[in-house]
Design goal:
Elements lengths: L16 H4 L7 E2 L11 H11 L11 H15 L8 E4 L2 H12 L5 E4 L5 H9 L3 E4 L3 E3 L2 E3 L2 H8 L4 E7 L11 H13 L3 E5 L23 E5 L2 H4 L7 E4 L3 H13 L7 H13 L1 H25 L4 E2 L7 E5 L7 H12 L1 E2 L1 E2 L11 E5 L4 H15 L14
Parallel strand pairs: 1-13, 3-4, 3-7, 7-8, 8-9
Antiparallel strand pairs: 2-10, 5-6, 9-10, 11-12, 12-15, 14-15
Length: 396
């Protein structure tokens, strides 16, 4: 490999949300979606060059920024974007909230597929809307969409928006073009607008292919994306709303300005251009490294915790573990792991009280040695709950 993803970059004591939220120095954090890999050298170099100018005031977003976005998605995903479709903002979560506010009235329903990224719930409720769940169906080591339930809920006259996660966090699905097309057809039939959160769109495992939702229905959708998760630059606060529909885009832009998330970090503007113009090889190697970490996780679980089932990870760097064979809730397991094992993971209930119960989410975007140490601790704690009388493999 050209890049060294095994290198451990010390982060404790740097005001890292991931590493410093829990004050104990011996805790290994495998929770929040934040990589422990050094940022790609071209991004570092571009930021160093910008630092040579000693003033960091408000920034204009140049044409080269739009060109970087347009060229990246054309090159990588065969998606042809026009400059006028792009609205920049400070992050995908603010963009989700702005899009929901632009498209809904309080009391309406926003459909999502659970388990789902936890901030989706608050973004919907903060607008005074109702969360409507299309619970994904567990099938073996993966999930599928219950399309009958999906259409029934789209047909509800109070459902005005479908909030899609593509690739899906936390289930790890990379939705196929056929699945996206079927969702698009149902939403269009029932006049439901689609907001597609595609923040993890570059983190795709070998053998899988990402399709932007806009490629199946550009006219009835808004896409939200960012280099933040993909290139480990979340702290630089940069994201884009991409919308072909002029009227929808005007409404979203108005909300972005009303809520004053229209000014962006000058370093985010620089980093995005370096990422999209120069770091394709970095993302390819990082994906391979995360895939190897995932294979290591599966081997460890098979050898040490065979009652756990690892859900197939097609995209993202977030593993989803089924621990339902233990007489232990997700929240109890998370607390036990933190207090007894000194390893910090995410409880599945963050992503839906019902759909996430019995699961844990683990971040695999870390050096392998960090992962190994974290898994040893996880195995030591959860191994106490193993039931030799129970058949291996968790119930579907």
């Amino acid at each position: 490999m050209k890049y060294d993803f095994d290198k451990v970059v010390p982060r404790r004591g740097t005001n890292s949300y991931k590493w410093d939220l829990v004050k104990q120095d011996d805790v290994i954090p495998l929770w929040v979606a934040d990589m422990d890999f050094a940022v790609a050298p071209p991004i570092q170099e571009a930021l160093r060059k910008r630092m040579e100018h000693p003033v960091f005031g408000y920034t204009l977003v140049p044409n080269s920024y739009y060109e970087a976005v347009i060229n990246w998605f054309d090159r990588r995903h065969n998606w042809h974007i026009e400059k006028d479709w792009i609205l920049y903002t400070s992050g995908v979560v603010p963009a989700v909230s702005c899009a929901i506010k632009a498209f809904t009235l309080p009391g309406e329903k926003v459909l999502l597929q659970t388990p789902a990224y936890n901030c989706f719930f608050s973004s919907i409720r903060n607008q005074g809307c109702e969360v409507l769940e299309n619970e994904l169906v567990r099938e073996g080591d993966t999930y599928r969409i219950d399309f009958e339930d999906f259409e029934r809920k789209c047909a509800d006259e109070k459902t005005t928006v479908f909030l899609l996660c593509n690739p899906h966090n936390p289930c790890g699905r990379v939705w196929t073009k056929e699945e996206l097309q079927r969702m698009a057809d149902i939403c269009r039939k029932h006049h439901v607008k689609v907001i597609s959160d595609e923040i993890h769109c570059e983190i795709i495992m070998p053998g899988y292919h990402f399709t932007p939702f806009a490629l199946v229905d550009e006219d009835n959708s808004v896409t939200l994306n960012s280099p933040s998760k993909n290139f480990n630059i979340a702290g630089l606060q940069i994201a884009n709303v991409i919308c072909k529909n002029d009227e929808w885009r005007r409404r979203i832009d108005r909300v972005i300005n009303i809520y004053e998330v229209c000014d962006v970090n000058p370093f985010g503007v620089i980093a995005l251009q370096a990422a999209y113009n120069e770091c394709g090889d970095w993302i390819d190697e990082m994906n391979q490294y995360v895939w190897d970490n995932y294979q290591y996780l599966k081997r460890f679980v098979l050898d040490e915790l065979p009652q756990i089932q690892v859900i197939r990870m097609e995209g993202t760097y977030l593993a989803w573990l089924d621990i339902m064979c233990y007489e232990l809730s997700s929240d109890e397991a998370t607390q036990q792991l933190l207090h007894d094992g000194r390893v910090f993971v995410s409880s599945g209930t963050l992503y839906g009280k019902k759909a996430g119960e019995g699961y844990l989410r683990l971040n695999l975007a870390c050096p392998r040695e960090t992962l190994k140490q974290g898994l040893v601790r996880l195995g030591r704690v959860l191994g106490q709950y193993a039931n030799d009388d129970h058949e291996y493999g968790c119930p579907m």
